[in-house]
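can u do me a favor
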């Protein structure tokens, strides 16, 4: 019989990168994991989760899946950045309503989108949120609704992170910008100036952090925020250098580092939603954006941290860019 710690979590978006990583980590800790998904099927590493068919846009589906949950991980996003303005906030509202009904804590994997240039380069939990993009404005609205919900019967934990990478990462710069999934790495398309720092968040480390925080639920405030430092690279191009090292270590020829084709993104953005969204976020590559994790380290004692080359190797292997 599988071990259990008596806790139940509903993961909305368990087939995605962050949701799936958190679900797998909590399963390992003995949680009962429910996974809400629209289609049939699951991930191999989540075979023991309870998969529930439903739609995050349907309030009744979310409420039904949340019955008995102590925690709801809200890790769902519209695929390909499509219709953010129409879908993101209604999905958030459905999670909030379900959490209030059962008294659950909502966990939101946050991003740096809700910060504008006035808060850069070093972001703390108290930095001003003055976004300059549509997605950033939506992120701010999500957090405002969560703060209000924390006064109305729900509890909230937000872990803000840099760019995600890792197994099953889904929409992310690593797999959509730097390399091409399913193909050997012969070149690496880097989106920013080489000397500008950049923050990355390795999914298994993020999931481990969430698990450790939830293990100390009684010590968390009703509305709690932490910043995840992750892999802060003072020279942003060091992520591309790490990819080069890993490819060579696996017997491949050293890939070249090229400049990301922003000109092509600009030309195609009126017609391709994803390109339009990528172009909107270009400012995050033009200036350093670092998440200060002093609060998180003070609370946990340390931040989970997989060595960069090991994390990159796992990510590339999962993406089909390296032999297993």
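np, heres the sequence
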């Amino acid at each position: 019989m599988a071990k259990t710690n008596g806790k139940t979590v509903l993961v909305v978006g368990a087939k995605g990168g962050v949701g799936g990583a958190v679900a797998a980590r909590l399963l390992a800790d003995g949680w009962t994991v429910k996974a809400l998904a629209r289609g049939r099927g699951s991930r191999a590493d989540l075979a023991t989760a309870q998969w529930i068919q439903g739609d995050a846009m349907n309030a009744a589906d979310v409420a039904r899946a949340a019955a008995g949950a102590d925690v709801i991980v809200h890790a769902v996003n519209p695929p390909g950045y499509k219709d953010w303005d129409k879908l993101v906030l209604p999905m958030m509202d459905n999670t909030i309503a379900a959490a209030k009904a059962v008294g659950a804590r909502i966990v939101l994997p946050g991003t740096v989108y809700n910060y504008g240039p006035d808060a850069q380069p070093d972001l703390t939990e108290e930095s001003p949120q003055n976004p300059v993009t549509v997605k950033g404005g939506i992120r701010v609205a999500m957090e405002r609704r969560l703060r209000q919900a924390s006064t109305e019967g729900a509890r909230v934990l937000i872990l803000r992170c840099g760019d995600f990478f890792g197994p099953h990462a889904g929409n992310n710069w690593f797999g959509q910008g730097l390399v091409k999934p399913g193909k050997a790495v012969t070149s690496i398309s880097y989106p920013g100036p080489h000397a500008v720092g950049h923050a990355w968040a390795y999914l298994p480390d993020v999931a481990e952090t969430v698990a450790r925080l939830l293990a100390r639920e009684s010590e968390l405030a009703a509305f709690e925020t932490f910043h995840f430092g992750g892999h802060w690279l003072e020279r942003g191009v060091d992520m591309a250098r790490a990819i080069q090292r890993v490819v060579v270590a696996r017997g491949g020829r050293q890939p070249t580092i090229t400049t990301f084709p922003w000109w092509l993104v600009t030309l195609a953005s009126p017609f391709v939603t994803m390109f339009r969204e990528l172009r909107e976020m270009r400012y995050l590559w033009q200036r350093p954006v670092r998440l200060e994790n002093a609060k998180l380290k003070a609370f946990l004692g340390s931040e989970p941290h997989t060595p960069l080359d090991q994390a990159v190797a796992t990510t590339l292997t999962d993406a089909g860019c390296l032999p297993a």
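The longest strand covers residues 32-37. hope that helps!!
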